[in-house]
Every structure is written in structure tokens, then in C-alpha cells.
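Translate structure to sequence.
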């Protein structure tokens, strides 16, 4: 018997999951989440998944309930005799904990990989991991998609005559370099120093930004401190305009106020994480069509490399 596809949504990604299912050409499967008075919860599938390819869509942004719900759904699918279980994680939470950068700290990304494997996942599909090496934390295949497939056509549609790509920190130079090579434009790098997380001590820029339409490229925007400070510095150095492209809009703490009051002309993000509130400077591009197509290709055992344009 040829296995069929069933797509289910975790509570944190229901809107995106519905769009992905629509892009694939099906409807979301029925699933039930039950909460107890003490806060504990359980999940169940309300339709048969025996012998099916089960795709479970859930970004694992805070709270950690989102991650644990995904694990419970994987376990439920395994115990219901699903043929294959694929965790579709548009945003892979805990990815910033990818190494021991100081003594006596956890490597959260590796722990999450272990938990997913222990729960019974057969494959993982995600987008713009904070560090590429996280793929190596898994003993199952990982489909690592890139939001450049969506961002680059949008950038080209802006028709910026003096475009310059910039990395907001030295860790993002590889990503920014890929964009600058594809677009055949120059690149600048911001160098920042921090004493504690989410607080920048000082920042400088490497490269000439005068008279340029600068586009900052990053994978995550959290408190927006780095990007708004970089935008201010770029404008101070004579930039014509500054935009930012970030795949995952975590947008915590003072992020919205900082963006609203910043020199950023526009912040372009995806819907891997639901936008908490509207902001006139924020443009959201959907990843639904991309994930829907990749699910189809994975089901049919087709190559997905045509989506890797930068």
C-alpha cells in the first residue's frame, strides 16, 4: 500500500500550517489538545495515521510548551503506527545554544535534537538554522531550507540602484556574502562587542556605506538592539537608506518600540513565528508555498536543491 500524507499543526503554528497544507493541496488533520487544571496537557490524533507519512508543523519558539507539544505529537504518531514522521520546524528554537561558549553551560540545540530522535522522528525539516552545524546533531535526515528563496525576489523587486548588503555581526558574514554574490553587489560588516547577552557594548562598520541603500541580513531578530543600532550607525556613515531582512521574527522585549523609532526604513521577516502585533515598518513574507512544495518533493523522493539559490 502506498502511504498517504497527513499534515497536522501544533498550537503555535496553526495559521502557517493551514497555509502550508493548502499549498500542498490538502487540509490539516484533526488533532486534539487537552489541558488539565495543573497546566499539564496531552495530545491525540482524531483520525487514523496508520501507515501514513505524518508531517507535524510546529515552530518551537517560547514558551517551551511548543517544543513539548511537538514531542508529544511525534510520540503519538509513532504509537499510532505512522509510516514516517517528519517534524516540520520552520523556526528551530534553542538554536542559539549550539556550542559551549563558556564553562558549565548546556548545548540546548543538541539536547533538542536528542529529544526529537528519542520521541521517534524520522526526518526534520527546518529553515535558516542559527548555525549550519546543528544539522550534524541529528542521526536522521535534515532538510535545511533557506529563506533567500523568498527574500531575493522581493529584494530584486525593490530595484535599489545603490544596493549594498551588510552583515550585522561577524557571525553573519557567510549569509550576507551569499546574498551579495548572488546580487553582484558589495558587502559591509558590522563588528559588535557585548558584555552580556542582548546588550551591545560598542559597534563599528567595516566597508563604505556612503550613498548606499543598505540591506542588513540576519537569521533572527530578537530584541532588535543589534539591527537598530546598526541602522543608526549606517545612516551616520552616510547611507541613503537602511532595511533589514531577518528570517525569524522573535521580537521580544522592547523590539517593536525600537523598530518603530529606528532608522530602519523597512524590516522584512517571514511567518515562521506568528507576528505578535502589527507594525507599519514590518513586512511579512510567507514561507507556506516553499514548505508545501518541499513536503511534496520529500513525499515523492524528488530533489529540493533547486530551492537553494543563495
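Result:
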Amino acid at each position: 500500500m502506498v502511504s498517504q500524507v497527513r499534515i497536522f499543526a501544533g498550537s503555535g503554528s496553526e495559521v502557517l500550517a493551514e497555509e502550508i497544507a493548502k499549498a500542498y493541496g490538502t487540509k490539516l488533520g484533526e488533532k486534539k489538545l487537552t489541558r488539565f487544571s495543573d497546566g499539564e496537557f496531552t495530545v491525540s490524533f482524531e483520525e487514523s495515521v496508520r501507515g501514513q507519512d505524518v508531517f507535524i508543523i510546529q515552530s518551537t519558539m517560547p514558551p517551551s510548551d511548543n517544543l513539548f507539544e511537538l514531542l508529544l505529537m511525534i510520540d503519538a504518531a509513532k504509537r499510532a503506527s505512522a509510516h514516517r514522521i517528519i517534524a516540520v520546524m520552520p523556526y528551530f528554537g534553542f538554536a542559539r545554544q549550539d556550542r559551549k561558549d563558556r564553562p558549565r553551560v548546556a548545548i540546548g540545540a543538541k539536547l533538542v535534537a536528542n529529544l526529537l530522535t528519542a520521541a521517534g522522528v524520522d526526518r526534520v525539516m527546518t529553515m535558516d538554522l542559527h548555525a549550519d552545524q546543528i544539522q550534524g546533531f541529528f542521526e536522521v535526515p535534515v532538510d535545511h531550507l533557506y529563506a533567500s528563496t523568498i527574500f531575493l525576489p522581493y529584494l530584486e523587486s525593490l530595484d535599489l540602484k545603490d544596493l549594498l548588503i551588510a552583515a550585522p555581526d561577524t557571525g553573519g558574514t557567510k549569509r550576507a556574502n551569499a546574498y551579495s554574490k548572488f546580487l553582484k553587489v558589495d558587502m559591509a560588516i558590522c563588528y559588535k562587542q557585548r558584555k552580556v547577552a542582548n546588550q551591545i557594548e560598542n559597534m563599528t562598520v567595516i566597508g563604505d556605506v556612503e550613498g548606499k541603500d543598505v540591506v542588513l541580513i540576519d537569521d533572527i531578530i530578537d530584541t532588535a538592539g543589534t539591527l537598530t543600532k546598526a541602522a543608526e550607525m549606517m545612516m551616520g556613515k552616510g547611507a541613503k537608506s537602511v532595511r533589514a531582512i531577518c528570517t525569524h521574527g522573535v521580537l521580544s522585549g522592547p523590539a517593536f518600540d525600537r523598530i518603530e523609532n529606528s532608522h530602519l526604513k523597512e524590516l522584512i521577516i517571514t511567518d515562521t513565528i506568528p507576528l505578535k502585533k502589527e507594525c507599519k515598518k514590518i513586512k511579512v513574507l510567507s514561507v507556506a508555498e516553499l514548505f508545501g512544495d518541499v513536503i511534496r518533493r520529500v513525499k515523492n523522493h524528488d530533489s529540493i536543491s533547486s530551492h537553494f539559490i543563495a
